[in-house]
Amino acid sequence: MESSILANSFFSNRWFLLGVLVTIRTAFGFQFQSVASVSSLMIEDLNINYAEVGTLIGFYMLPGVVIALPSGLLGKRFGDRRVAGYGLALMVVGAVVMGLGGSYPLALAGRLITGVGAVMMNVAVTTMISTLFAGREIRTALGIMLGSWPFGIALGLVVQGLVAEAYSWQVVMHMTAAMSGVSLILLTTVVRISSYAKLSSVNQARFSFLIPWRELVLASLAGIVWAMFNIGFSAHFSFTPDFLVTRGMSSTDAAGAVSIGIWVTMFSVPLGGILTERIGRPNTIIVVFCILAGVTLGLFPHISAAVALSFLIGVAIGPSPPSIVALPAQVVNAENLGPGIGIFFTWYYAGMAIGPAIAGFGRDVTGSAATPLYFGASMFGVAIVFLALFHAAARRYAR
User: Fold this and answer.
1) Domains, the chain, ranges and CATH?
2) What is the pTM of this model?
3) 122-134, pLDDT tens digit by residue?
């Protein structure tokens, strides 16, 4: 009896739940990176251009424009664990469709299905973690959670290109399906959220489609900050390998050089959350490290030190995300946290759907592999502008 109580206590511990949810969320970054990792093979096999590759990358984020808010509302009504489970199932189905590899429209359809599932999973997991750690170590928890995204991307950079060259890019898509399937099994068999379920039942009792205007505006501004930040980051890991190849690197070496910085973010993001919890001043940290990230990305076309710059941008990327993702929890009431995070991610997904396509279009129009990097660097500056607007609006509503 005592051992059973101890086991239940362990499996319901919020730090244990965080670890499992972080592991599950790794499938998100791994699947997102898959197209960029095999882009050269897809261009040759499907007879497409860089703009179409950018569109395919962005299609993973496009469903979030219309799915993120409903995902938050559905999680509030039916439970975030259930929403996350359905999302992971769609990630499996869409990846299998992409793995059929018959045509570009089929790839777009599969990518869209995986994107819908990823949105549902991401909103639900973020809401669960934000609720479990509300008011106590939330930046640390979110920092650890966010580290799963670069880990999945870095893992994809290292593994997916090699697998595609040895077998085919279709096999890579089936790999992402398998990883999402394992995550689904973890969610349904390991995650026990009895403590969270009590909070979820309160939200269900208070369920409403109405969201106060103040919360809508502030969650939207926070989401735009997150969108701009991630457009800059995605421009780096999606287009810097291509730029390095034009400078004479092999595709494997270029992917490896970029992956170094992304591996660094696995540590710099959670450490950034811990640092912010300890010293405070989250806004200053966001501004300083956004500037550093933008400047570093802009230096790639001018300095032949890809590994050093990649390491530096990995350090610069880390400290800001925990504080940015914590913004909705600061301005949205607890019963509206799911929908608030849904609004936050709506803007994020809109930006991420459009941003890579713009970067790829700039690459095609200018003929310069450096154009997407300059575009990405500028996005970090735009993020700072919208952070200032967020705090200005918060002060106005406070008055």
Assistant:
1) 9-201+209-398 (1.20.1250.20)
2) 0.77
3) 999 998 888 888 7
